[in-house]
């Protein structure tokens, strides 16, 4: 809705790291409930933007505003980063334990989160007994246990095989349909972006500023056969062209 506060708003954000030109300025508004893919050349600043949105890092200049409070922001990284000695349930419960949520309530929410990624049967398994895809799902369940309004994912698919990444994309769409969180994810893959996201933000390879925003098909969950359909193919082409333009000046 147009007059609702955006989930995220970055205004004239600049990030300075030693030994390189500043990243930005980045102006970016993400409406509530969108699924946004951050795409751009390697080193353009995708992960940095995600850390800024998460509040893990502060900008050198400009403003970062986020509607969701810190404890309603979920983070998922490329590596699942699970506690190896702990069960899937205990891993999923971790943020709730850290927040001091009472045990019975935390167990209930962890169980619901594991169920929403199809792992209710593996709640007692330790990470060594889970496949890579399942470990990623536990990592996603851990983020979901806090019932995030904003879910941030840094290359969640990068380490997964094609079948597993597609299954995870379906999980994410199902979660979106059930809970309507705003999702922002980093990807290198234009097909994953076009399939999962409702819009893509393309970063300029040289400056890290937003080069273009590409609107993607908005019907969620995706209809059967979407990936191979004309609409998806056209979206991949538009996005590839935008990425090509954003990389045009080189680094
Ligand atoms: N903590 C840091 N200290 C210094 N430089 C950094 C730091 N974090 C990122 N950078 C630099 O900022 C730039 C952007 O990095 P970032 O990881 O955000 O890019 P990216 O688009 O996510 O790249 P990739 O696709 O390769 O993961 C890079 O040049 C990187 O070397």
From TrEMBL:
Signal peptide segment: none
A Pfam family: ABC_tran
Keyword Membrane attached: no
Alphabetical list of Gene3D superfamilies matching this protein: P-loop containing nucleotide triphosphate hydrolases (3.40.50.300)
Matches recorded under SMART domains: AAA (SM00382)
Gene Ontology MF terms in the entry: ATP binding
Keywords assigned: ATP-binding, Nucleotide-binding, Transport
All residue ranges annotated as the ABC transporter domain in the record: 8-232
Homology family: Belongs to the ABC transporter superfamily.
Protein name as annotated: ABC transporter ATP-binding protein
């Amino acid at each position: 809705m147009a007059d609702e506060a955006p989930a995220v708003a970055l205004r004239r954000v600049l990030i300075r790291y030693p030994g390189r030109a500043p990243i930005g300025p980045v102006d970016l508004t993400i409406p509530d409930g969108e699924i946004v893919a951050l795409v751009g050349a390697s080193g353009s600043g995708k992960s940095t933007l995600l850390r800024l949105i998460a509040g893990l890092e502060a900008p050198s200049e400009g403003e970062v505003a986020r509607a969701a409070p810190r404890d309603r922001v979920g983070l998922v990284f490329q590596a699942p980063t699970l506690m190896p000695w702990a069960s899937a349930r205990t891993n999923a419960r971790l943020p709730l334990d850290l927040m001091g949520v009472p045990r019975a309530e935390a167990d209930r929410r962890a169980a619901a989160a594991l169920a929403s990624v199809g792992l209710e049967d593996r709640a007692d398994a330790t990470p060594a007994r889970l496949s890579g895809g399942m470990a990623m799902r536990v990592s996603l369940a851990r983020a979901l246990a806090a019932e995030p309004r904003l879910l941030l994912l840094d290359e969640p698919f990068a380490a997964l095989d094609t079948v597993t990444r597609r299954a995870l994309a379906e999980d994410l769409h199902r979660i979106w349909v059930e809970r309507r969180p705003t999702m922002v994810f980093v990807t290198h893959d234009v097909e994953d972006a076009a399939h999962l996201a409702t819009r893509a933000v393309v970063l300029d390879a040289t400056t890290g500023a937003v080069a273009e925003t590409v609107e993607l098909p908005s019907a969620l969950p995706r209809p059967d056969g979407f990936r191979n359909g004309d609409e998806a193919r056209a979206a991949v082409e538009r996005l590839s062209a935008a990425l090509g333009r954003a990389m045009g000046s080189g680094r």
